[in-house]
Amino acid sequence: MPASALLALTLSSTALGHQFDNYAYDFLFRLIQPAPWKPGSVILAIDEETLRRYGGNAGIRSALADGIAKIQPAHPAAVAVDVILAEPSTEEIDARLEAAFAGTRNLVLASYLLENNTWNDPIPRFRKYAFATGHVQASFDDYDSVSREVPLMKVGGHDRRWSLALDAFRAVQRAQILESPQDLQVGAVTIPSKLRDFTVDGRTLRVRYPPVAMGGLPRVSIAELDRNPSLVSRFAGQVVFVGETALAAGDSWSTPYSNGKTTPGIEMHASEYETLAQRNFLVDAPLLPVIGFCFLMAAAAGLIFFLGSGWVANLEAMGLVLLSQITPALAFRNSVVFAWLPGTLTAALSVAAAATWRHLIVRRELARAEQEKTRYQKAMQFVTHEMRTPLTAIQGSSELISRYGQMPEAKRKQMAELINAESKRLARMIETFLSVERLSAGQMEMKQERFPLPELVERCTERARAFAERKQIEIDVEALPADELSGDRELMEYAVYNLLTNAVKYSPALTRVRVFSEDDKGGKVRLSIQDQGIGMDKKEVSRIFEKFYRTKRAEQSGEAGTGIGLSIVEQIVTQHGGTIHVESEPGKGSRFTLILKRAS
């Protein structure tokens, strides 16, 4: 699950991830709007009608001079002009505008940072009346050109400028700007704006635009003032933002509210001022809580599917994904911008990974249960198959005794001895099978007794020769060392006998099974049983000791078997501290070598 969180955080840090976060921000911006407030600013607009009345763009300075002069009797708190006045016009027009500026309190004029990193400033005859010269540049997203935040400062060469709205705000506050790495202080107002660098958009601010319920900020055009001078009262004590709102001016931006429409630049400056004046700030959530939230989502997804399953776990997982959506919305309601994509992606990836893990676990448990079921079915088949011979002998002998009441005493004694011998054999088979099962489960300890290797091999060979004679197979036992082994004699006898009968079973008639021993300088005994049978390839050899595994050649041979015998042999040898080694080649037979410890 931590990998899901790391992957989500990595993907969220890409350009595509940031874009998804921006779209989520725009959605929440429109969904969770601030409560309406009483604006402290008003827009003095140069609209289409004003441009027509003053002769188009050539008459903008005349319109400015008339508009500002008309609102002076209302004593506005400040006037911020979003018109670049970098070149002189006719003396008459510039004189009228200069006079209007001279009579304006807290005048803030616009400047613009050019591509050559120099400032396009108002001409000196206007600038000398300005409280400050603020920049009017915006910040746009590289992919969708939406302005979601504005630069509070710009640096050109060695000259730094604050934004037009921030200069207007500090003019009204009559305070200097105090800086720290995390914020700006203007009088009693703390503006959360982290210092990023000193060269580009060093400090930015997310603008809270007026909610739809407010119908936008108050706006009066200069043309309207000409028609209705009583509208001047609307500028009393307000911060006035003067600029073009005509679409032909081209000064319009896309905002999170735009939804396909654009907003005049002067209105965005006024909205920036309102954000400062109302202290209605949006701040980005720190990175650490976002990372913590992602890992919390991942841990919760893991716990859901670790502790539960089925429809309950699925419902809880859906709730977790829903929580990843609700958290950014709750944060936004509290003026915190909490990145949407990291938590959402973490929840989705973690739920998918945890659900897949649970599915695999269930599948594995189901497969294990099926294997156990198959194991016990085959175990019963083994018991049935192996016990059929002694049971048949017992049944046949008992029927003969009961059918022939006048059977000679010698014959009756022979039958009774056969029943007794086969009953004991059957009991030993059952005991061997159960002992091996208990040994493999660690539920019993082996007997510890000493017995000679030659005697053990001789007993097994004698039992196997009857089976070998039917196929005219010779069992050749070479001279064996008189070494003694230590352990459970019956279990070791079963192991050697099983290897002998397998050698006979899978060898063609008129062949030879060889039993011999080789010197081992490591204090161990090496007992080998080699046949001339069907053999195995390397892949089959690697699986030969798996329970219930049979090679294709063994199945095609027509010989009955369950594939459990060799797995029992391996367990017996392993429990005695030994190993078993197999060498085989298809069509050339096999050699099974037991490497056993000598009795100390």
Could you explain the architecture of this structure?
The chain has about 600 residues and is α/β, with parallel strands linked by helices. It folds into 3 domains: about 140 residues; about 240 residues, no CATH class; about 150 residues, Histidine kinase-like ATPase, C-terminal domain (Heat Shock Protein 90), CATH 3.30.565. It is about 50% helix and about 20% strand. The protein has 18 helices and 25 strands. The longest helix is centred in the middle third of the chain and has 64 residues. The protein is rod-shaped, with a radius of gyration of 48 Å.
What number of structural domains do the residues give?
A: 3
Computed over alpha carbons, the radius of gyration is: 48 Å
Secondary structural class: alpha/beta
Characterize the overall form. rod-shaped
Largest sheet: 7 strands, mixed
| Oligomeric form | single chain
Q: Could you estimate the helical fraction of the residues in percent?
A: 40-55%
The number of distinct β-strands equals 25
Number of helices: 18
Which parts are unreliable, with pLDDT below 50 for 5 consecutive residues or more? none
Mean pLDDT across residues: 86
Distance between the termini: 54 Å
